[in-house]
Amino acid sequence: MNLPASMQVFERGWLSSNNILFIDDAHTALVDSGYQTHAPQTLALAQHALRGRGLDLLVNTHLHSDHCGGNALLQSHYGCRTLIPVADVDAVSVWDEARLPYRATGQQCERFHFDGSIDHGDSLQLGGLPWQVIAAPGHDPHSMVLYCAQEAILISADALWENGFGVIFPELEGESGFAEQAAILQCIRELDVRTVIPGHGAPFSDVQGALARAQSRLDYLSTDPKRNARNALKVMLAFLLLDTQQLSLANVCQQLGNNRLMQAAAAQLDMPLDALMVQLADELVRAGAAHLEGDILFNGR
After folding, report:
1. Most exposed among 82, 102, 209, 229, judged by the fewest C-beta atoms under 10 Å?
2. C-alpha distance from residue 281 to each of 5, 29, 273, 274, 300 (Å)
3. Rounded CA gap, 139 and 159, in Å?
4. Angle CA(137)–CA(106)–CA(258) in degrees, nearest 5?
5. Strands (E), 88-149
């Protein structure tokens, strides 16, 4: 993928989001920092690419743990200025775990601080290029994407992948998410985008193809919200398995018992969580994403 010389993309595995590093003569910046488990790897990647320079700025597209879990370590090492979505400012200020997504999803994120915020319509200079901040609710109600009209590049976070988009979490708890996801897809259609750097997966240039696939996926999920609930459960189980590498099926419900979003999804499906977990584990095994030895589910990726 042909990107400006001031940009580098660290394509990560599915437990961590991609990281985008910007280096110009005056400043350095990183967009998204991956999952907490991979924070030392994120730091090592940044150190190697920066070659002795510091990291001036860290920008989070949204505050799901796979996008900001490396914040604390990067802040400790570099003292970098950090910008977060404006709607998350109050919750991060006091580290309100009832409003932050980590307890709700059963995922990890070390407490971090911030120095400022990004809001829809803001402009950033990254890698010597102008970037427009665009609100992108749907997957996360507070998410942002970044667009550089000069280079026709979109940093799409989890609003658009090459084959879909992130789980529409708000719909699990009765909030609107499908309409917002449709709106950000329409917004992207109206931009001149030649290259997309997604939150997960390789950068791609078939933007219209990706939009068509994402719209088809959204139509499928929104026609029957139970499909979104089932998909969310499978994704959260797969994420936990990637993080822990193995899970006991006998204990998985106990481990996930405090996971508010898991419980909300199971309630939509009107099935006991333990029965759902057995079904979803079988689906992961059949998809080649896991394998089962007795009662233990192992990561197969």
Report:
1. 209
2. 43, 39, 12, 11, 12
3. 7
4. 115
5. 116-118, 123-126, 129-135, 144-148
Is the sign of the CA dihedral 101, 105, 111, 117 positive or negative? negative
Q: How many angstroms separate the Cα of 272 from the Cα of each of 59, 148, 199, 223, 227? A: 39, 46, 32, 23, 16
- What would the pLDDT profile of 53-80 be if each residue is shown by its tens digit? 999 999 999 999 999 999 999 999 999 9
**Does the 7-223 domain belong in CATH 3.30.160.150?**
no
Claim: this prediction has a pTM higher than 0.85: yes
With a CB cutoff of 8 Å and minimum separation 6, the contacts of 247 are 240, 241, 255, 296, 297
Nearest C-alpha neighbor of 178 from the set 127, 229, 123, 104:
229
C-alpha span between 159 and 197 (Å, rounded)? 11
- Name the token pair of 259: 């996971």
Task: State the amino acid at position 115 in one-letter form.
Answer: D
Distance between CA atoms of 88 and 241, rounded to whole angstroms?
A: 28
C-alpha closest to that of 158 among 213, 200, 216: 200
| Half-sphere exposure (Cβ direction) of 266: Cα atoms closer than 13 Å | 21
Contacts of 10 (CB under 8 A, 6+ apart): 18, 19, 20, 21, 42, 45, 49
Structure tokens at 164: 């879909």
Strands 153-157, 195-198: pairing kind: parallel
* Rounded alpha-carbon distances, angstroms, from residue 255 to 20, 108, 175, 259, 270: 33, 13, 26, 8, 20
Domain extent listing, the chain: 7-223, 225-299
